[in-house]
Amino acid sequence: VKIYILFLFTFISTFAHGTQVEIGLASNFSEISTGSSNPYGRYFRNGVDLAVKAYEARLNAKKIEILIRQFDYGTNEAQVLKVAREAAASRVVAVIGYNYSSDALLAAPIHQESKLPMLLPSASANRLSSFGDYIHLASFSNESMGKGLAQIAFRKLKARRVLTLPAGNCAYCNDLADSFTQEFEALGGRVPVRKAVLSDDRDFSQLIRDLKVESFDAILVPNQELVSARIIKAFLDAGINKPFIGGDGWGDLGREFFEVLKGKTVKGTSISHWHIGLTDKKSNDFKSRYKALSGQDPNDTAVLAYDTTCLLLEGILKSKSLDRVGIENALNSIKSFDGVTGKFQFIGHQAPKKSMVVLDSSTGEFKVIGRLSPEGKGAIIK
Amino acid sequence: MTTPQLKSLRHLVNKLSAVSIAFVAILTIISLWIFSDIRKTSMSSETKVKLESSLGTQLDRLLPTFLLPEQREGLPLLLERFKSNDGLVDVGIFMDEGSHPSSLDGCNFSKLSTSYCENSNLDVVAVVAPILEGDRFFGFYYKIKSMNGPWLAEHVLSLSAIILAIFAITFLVLQRLQTRLLSQMVPESIDRLISWIDSDLNDTPQGTPNLWVTELETLRIKISESLDRYKESRDQAVIGQLTSGIMHDLKTPLQSLVSAINLVETAGSTERRNQMLQILFETSRDNVHVIQDIIETTLDGNREIALRKISGELQQTIEFVVKQNKEIATRSKVQVSAETDSSLQLSHDPTQLSRALSNLIKNGIEAAAEGHVDRRVLIRSFRQENSIVVSVSDTGPGLRFDPKRLFRVFRSSKVRGAGLGLLITKRIVEAHGGSVEAIRNSELGGAEFRMSIPGGPA
User: Fold this and answer.
1) Using the beta-carbon criterion (under 8 Å), do B74 and A105 form an inter-chain contact?
2) Which residues of chain A are modeled with pLDDT < 70?
3) What is the dihedral of CA A277, A283, A287, A290, to 10 degrees?
4) Which member of A63, A134, A284, B73 lies 3.0 to 4.6 Å from A168 by CB, making a disulfide possible if both were Cys?
5) Are A164 and A133 a contacting pair, CB within 8 Å?
6) How many CB pairs under 8 A join A and B?
7) Which H/E stretch holds residue B147?
8) Do the Cβ atoms of B227 and B197 come closer than 8 Å?
9) Nearest Cα to A298, choosing from A287, A285, A307, A309?
10) ipTM above 0.90, yes or no
């Protein structure tokens, strides 16, 4: 009788409270990184919270309670492995995060092996698609971005010789440089010099001395925001004011980017996922809700976290069983998704096909000058 | 304490000093070597701590380059950065024990933990750490850092120890040499010192003896000063004795004067009377001069000689004195000649200077008269730099006394006279602001006296 009563109590209790689903957030929540002085965590977490709030009604209707557990790896890439193993051993049914490609590449094998769905808001390394079903990219890949940048360099800037200066210890940077080079050379351009730097470098005097003898039309700086800005500043200081191009690593708000440049005018073009200047309905709605939540303007990290969380919550809502496998199956069944950053199209296990925002930095701030098609081909879509 | 006891005590002290220095040198060498060794060990530990402090971070940064092919391009840059940041001699990665660089020969590597390795000279420390991810082993990361500190300590301190040892040995050798030399030189020097004191006391001074030993030379100087003081007080005593002697001496000529006056009264012929008066006059004059000289040089020695200077030709004064002494010279069969420069103008007191010069000429005549063939006295005057020099030289036997001691009271080698002439000459010349110098052997073979008076005409 006692056992029966206990079982009944548990059943009633579960029914009354709904089902708790714990999701993990893996990011740098605590430390100043070399890529940006803003820890990703704050924007990231706000985006996630906003998405959970947006899905609150639908989740409640299904009596699903979302619990969130943070996995903080700071700025130490080696810690990513530890965090991924912790997540794998935990109750979480999916993990959103690993903002940098390096982090995601390190964690992906662990997630795949432990069958723990991994949703990547901004990691864009090409190889991420190859680890298996459980790795889900919510961002366009470096391949798409490299193609887009090559199109911009070749067609818009009319450049034929482009230098590439990736940070050698940054997977995203090398990957993007490779993708760009492949497409640019396919278009008929040349990359005469590829010089590696380190992501925490500050002195580029030797690099510039070496490159002064080279002939080139533009410079690809495929790195994170701070080191990209420092490289560009060093070139401008040396009197080299060629067009600079970069990927989503340059960011979209550009506070730190332009702070490093100290008012110097740069002929810069970059690609981003989103920009606060976009005025479509979804963007405007997101901006107002984000500001209401945090009191600040969002950046691309926040909006990508929002879209990715929404994608996961769609999967959770669709899932027949609220476990890792059930959610994984539900996620795989999603073929398209309409997010703030654009329309996602999932083909197989590849990164989603999404349009890219093109930003100009010649006015001392990032300004949207158009969009590129998901393939990165053709003219800039105005 | 008796002298032999003192000697043995001194010997013991010297020996103990030498032994102490040698002991300190040996002790220092041993201490420095031990210190150097301790320092090396300490530096080695410090270097290990420094290497280890950055090891974890560096391994964490290296690991992704093995896990991610996209980051492999950064590996050489990272290693270069680590090398620069840690001030390393070498840094690198090898995949297995067999492929380690030659600089790590002899080191043991573990795939499970960090190993440390030092070369035989202990001037470099190497740290070798496995690059691990869980159970996966990727390779060994090594970094080598030099320890300049121990090398410096070892070489500088060893050199200091060697220098100290050489110093101790040199000290011992020199001390033994010094003892041997002193045992020979000190008795010789003391003999010379005694001989020199004897000769000085006998007024037959020798040259300054070479005494070799500083202490003995100091002693000689002190003895010399004492002797001078002794002779001065002796002279003062002599003055007292001589004063009574002079009074006694004056008694005789005064008696002669009384007799001569009686004779003059009784003398018949005028010629005889004139002769007697002449003798009377000369005897009186000589005695007045003697008294005058004594008063000026001894009894009233502190009084300055009053000069009545006029500007005039020195030649006149010299010729006057030569003429004055001509009779004496003729009597002594000595040729007195003067080589004077008529253009020399000198501000001087002719009376006093004549007196001074006359003393010198008279001395010269007396000295020259001792000769048998060549009997000459030569007076010369000439300008030398800012002074006018009057020189009186003779063909006599030269000076028997130390020239420096001639100008003292009652110092005379002559049979006649009180030994005051040269002292008077000196004081007259000094009153003119000049000096008198005696030269033992002149060009003429005898003595030479030089009066040197500064300036020209007043």
Assistant:
1) no
2) 1-17, 32-40, 375-382
3) -140
4) B73
5) no
6) 65
7) none
8) yes
9) A287
10) no
